[in-house]
Amino acid sequence: MTHHRTVWAMALGVMFYGQAMAEKTSIQAIEEYRAMLADGNPADLFEAKGEDLWKQKRGPKNASLEQCDLGKGPGVIKGAFVELPRYFADVGTVQDLESRIVTCMAKLQGFDAAQIAKTPFGQGEMANVTALATYVAAESKGLRFNLPQNHAMEKAYYEVGKRMFFQRGGTHDFSCASCHGEEGKRIRLQDLPNLTKNPGDGVGFAAWPAYRVSNGQMWSMQLRLNDCFRQQRFPYPEFGSEVLTALSTYLGVNAKGAASAVPTVKR
Question: What pTM value is reported for the model?
Fold first, then answer.
């Protein structure tokens, strides 16, 4: 008799639990899942590695990156991430965070920028670039995006990025806007933010770099955009591609006023 009562109690418990879960929206459940993952975010390890790499003397010139100019003056890190991509006079073009870090690695430390650009994400010096980007970005956590749009090239990159965002193509006739161009869209039970405007604090552009739990990797913004191209069935753009920088400029300008939450944790 006791055994039957126990089984009945367990069945009731499962039923009530299932009912409670059904009453939750999918987004609430996902947010709870993310909150649990964020407690001890593995991205902290990449951030710590990046800080060590920033201060460590490395490369053919045996120098650190502490004099790297990310747009706010040599050595100034805080606040730089939320103003990138931007125009840099020393290279005569617009650069995002990762591309700028590689420029500093080449100029200050003597690394071969072209060789780094050819290295797959997560390997060799490219893995170090991701860690460095995580550290730099984390130093602006909570600050609000305010990308400069004063230089003619910054404005041009925004317009090119906008065009790329809406350009359809590939075997599935997709564009970035297919998923992120309007309100109320979802994929795999997750809401897709509308990236044609400010999606809110810590959403979209304000959420990367991020740690991907599903594959145990730290993803930079360039890698995130590359994965979007993969899902559109397009070839990957090269590291530092003008296409990636233009898209980042468009997304970053649209995120004006949003608070950065990086490094975040993703499914």
Answer: 0.85
